Structure formats: C-alpha cells, structure tokens
Amino acid sequence: MTTEPEVEARTSFGGPEIGAIAHLYRGEMYRSKIWRTRLDATTNWAVVTLGIALSVTFADPQASELPLVLVGGLLCMFLVFEARRYRFFDIWRTRVRVMETCFFGPILRDGGTDTSNGWPEILADDYTGLYFHISYAEALGRRLRRNYGLIFLAQLSTYFGKLIIHPTALQSSQELFDRAAIGPVPGEAVLLVCVLFYGGLAAFAFATRRFSKAVGRAHSFRGHVDRMRILTATEKF
Asked: Residues 186, 197: contact at Cβ < 8 Å?
C-alpha cells in the first residue's frame, strides 16, 4: 500500500512545473546533440588526416613513411581536443539522463514522479554551480578506448605495412631498420620510440578504464556527482 509521504513525493510537481521541466529537457537535449556533433567532427578530422597521410605514403614506391609518423602527433592533438569537448558533452548528457530516468520514466510507468531519491536537489545543484562530472584523464581514456584506439591501430598497421611490403617485401631484419631510419635517426631508435609511444597509449587506456572519479568546484560536490551517476546508470559512450 502506498503511504501518504510517498503519494506527496510522487505528486509534488504541478502542471507549470512539469511544463517547465519539459522545456528544460528539450533545451538540454539540443545542447547534448550540438556537442555530440562536435565530438564527431573531431573524429572525422582525425580519420581524414590519417587518410591523407596514407595516400601520400603509398602514392609512390619511393615515397617516405614519414607522413605516417608525423600524423601520430596530429592524432594526439585531435584526441586532446575531443577529450575536452567530451567533458562538456558529458554535462548535458548527464542532465538529460537524469530527467529521463527520474522524471519522464516514472511518469510513463507510474503516472507520477518520485522525488524521494533526491534527484531534484542533485539536478538543481548542477545548475546552480556548473562543474565537470568526469576528470580530463577519464575523458581521454574513454575517447581513446572508444574511437582513437582503432585510429591509432590503423596508423600503426599501415606504418609497418609500408616498412614490410612496400615497395618490395623485406629480406632481412637489417633491411627493416634501414627502412625505418628517418634522416640521421637510426631505425632502431625510431622503432623503439614507436613501441614506447603505442605501449604508453595502451597502458593509459587500460589504467583509466576504471576511472570514475568526478572532479568539480570542490570536494564537497563529489557526493552529489556520485549520486547522479547512480541515478542515471547511463552507458559510457
């Protein structure tokens, strides 16, 4: 049987408040969509840049593999940009998910809203003091695992493909080192830097996999952010 406090909690919003929240949801959904488009644009830049490097490298049998090496720096730059954009996108996405799971969901399922878990206070705190819900390292790790891991893998595969089979197949390990050499830098050093670079990316992606520490204006807000995570239980894009 539903108790009186539970009935009050489920009927605490009137018509004007529900209408205001509906308009607020539309606004947050629009902002989430805009920032999602910005994320896709950064990824597209990375893919197009890698494609240009591939075209230049394999256009001629005598072409150097240097463009495939240099494009790694550009990919890192795009990853940094995208991680910053992802932190902003996560703000709007989280607000949308709170309203979907805690407001619209109960209305559709039970015919009323339930404020007993404190979601209005959490959402109000997020509006009165804007702060990020995830750290920069967590954003970098997410985008690296979701998008840029495959892009870096494509770059690495084509780089070694260039060394091994283009324009002719390798005949010895020494020939591999000779092809990998860049100007006065010996091939052994280039390959060592390559291993350290990609190994570092893989280690960073793995280390941040379990990162769930939100950062905000002050440590006192961390509890609110953790509660918001529990309320939304949203998939990590």
From this structure: no
